[in-house]
Amino acid sequence: MRLQVSGKQMDLGDAMRTHVSDRLDDVVSKYAGRPVEAVVTFSKDAHEYKCDASVHLSTGLTTQASARSTEIYAAFDSAAEKMDKQLRRYKRRLKDHHKDRQDPVEAIGEPSYVLANPDHSEEEEPDSLQPVIIAEMETPVLTLSVGEAVMQMELAQKQFLVFRNSSHGGVNVVYTRDDGNVGWIDPRRMS
């Protein structure tokens, strides 16, 4: 497993890196087995330490957790507990969805854009309705089943997920509705 442990404007010692490595190995091997990459970032905000942890699994799923505490070790341990809880909750679903999968989840890099916020007053009319692009990036679009997409969205704690449906190859979206349920958009035309 590739592990990146870093601190924002702070120096982390070898003892902290060893603690993070050992704890993540324990958490992930208990439930998922095959981590590919982990990124743990620490920062300090006033008197609190913040830990953001993300683990990418060989199945293509990513789990994330973050926590705050007045102690740096306690912040990481709390984030690791949250990750442990997520993986424990989805253990059966992970096994069910991926028992027949021989290859890792395919990801295709698609362009994504950041648009400028149109900040105009009521008196001022915009010259054009075309948005101003201020950044262009590449976003991975995973090929997943609908169940895997819902699980990935919940593990990553996102409000929505755009994915390529493994059953027909079309682009789909799953999202968290205001009522707490999950919505699914499948724009295929039914003939």
From TrEMBL:
It comes from Pontivivens ytuae. Its main location: cytoplasm. One of its GO terms (molecular function) is ribosomal small subunit binding. InterPro entries: HPF/YfiA_ribosome-assoc, HPF_long/plastid, RHF-like, RHF/RaiA, Ribosom_S30AE_C, Ribosom_S30AE_C_sf. It is found in: Cytoplasm. CDD domains: RaiA (cd00552). Associates exclusively with 100S ribosomes, which are dimers of 70S ribosomes. Interacts with 100S ribosomes. Coiled coil: none annotated. This is Ribosome hibernation promoting factor. Keywords: Cytoplasm, Translation regulation.
